[in-house]
Known about the structure:
Elements: H1 2-109, H2 119-122, H3 130-139, E1 150-153, E2 156-159, E3 166-169, E4 172-175, E5 181-183, E6 188-194, E7 203-207, E8 212-217, E9 219-222, E10 229-230, E11 235-239, E12 249-256, E13 259-261, H4 264-267, H5 276-280, H6 286-308
Antiparallel strand pairs: 1-4, 2-3, 4-12, 5-11, 6-7, 6-10, 7-8, 8-12, 9-11, 12-13
Helix pairs in contact: 3-6
Amino acid sequence: MKDRLLISISSIHGSRHYTVGKLLRRYFTSFFILFLLLSVGTVLFVNYLLNEVEQRQQNQFTLEQHAEQLLADIAQLEQHKAGLEDELSVRTDEIYMATSRLGEIEQALGLDQVYTQNLDQRLDTATINSAVRSTMLHMIPSGSPLEFRYRSSRFGNRTHPIHGNQRHHRGVDLAANRGTPIYAPADGVVESVRRSDSGYGNLLKIRHAFGFATLYAHLHEFKVSAGTFVEKGQLIATVGNSGASTAPHLHYEVHFIDRAINPQAFMDWDATNFDHVFTQERSIQWDSLVSLLETKVSNQLLLSSHKAAPSTEVSD
C-alpha cells in the first residue's frame, strides 16, 4: 500500500515537473521569438535611418554642387558685365573723339559757323539790364568750376600726354589735388554719371539751358546722381586721377548744341567782365539769346508788377 502511494506521489511530482518545464520552454520560445522580432525590427529601422541619412547627404552634396555652379555662373556673368561696361566706356570715348575729329574736319573745310560781323552790330551789351545779366550768369556756364593750381592743357590741338600723337583737346585740364571740390558753373540737370577705369575715367555731364552743357572727367567721387537738378555753385564732384590720366586734375568741357567749344572764355566770364564771353566766343548768336531773355524778363517783371499793384475799391 505504501509503495503504491509513493508511486502515485512520484507520478504527480513528475507530471508537475514536466508541466513546468513545458511552460518554461514555451515562455523561452516566445521570449526568443519576441527578441528576434525586436532585433529584426531594430535592424530594419537602423537601416532605414542610415538610408535616410545617406540620401540627405547625397541631396546636400548635389545642392552644394549646384550652388557652386551657380556661383561660378554668377562670377562669369559679373565678369562679362564688367567687360561690357569697359567696352561701353571705350565706345563712349570713341564717340567723343569721333565728334571731336568731325569738328576739326568742319573747321578745316570752313563749314563751322563763325560770325564775322562786328559784335557791336549784333549786340549792344550796354543796354542789357541787370535782370538779364543775372539770368545769363546763372543759366549759362560762367566762372571756374573749382580752385585749381594751374592749367596743364589748353583747348585745341596738342600732343597727347600718354599716346604722344597730335589730337584735338576738347576742353581744358585744370591741375588740382585729389579731392578738390568741383561746383556747378550754372543751373542745370545731371544728364549722366559714369564710372570707368579707362579713357575719360569717372565722368559727369550736366545739361544746362539754351543748348549748353558741361562735362567733367577723371573724377574721384560723385556728389550728385543722374537726373538730379543742380544750381550754380552746388557741389557736384571731387577731383581725381581716374581713367587715362597722369596726375590728379579736372578735364573740363563746355558744349553748345553738342559741340565742344573753348571753356576758357566761360571760365573768365563773370559780372565784372560781362562782355568777355561775347567777344571771345563768336560762334553763338548772343544777340538772339539776349533778345529772348529780355522779352521773358520784361514779361515776368510786368506780371509781377500787376500782382503787386494794390486793388482799389469803388465807394458810393
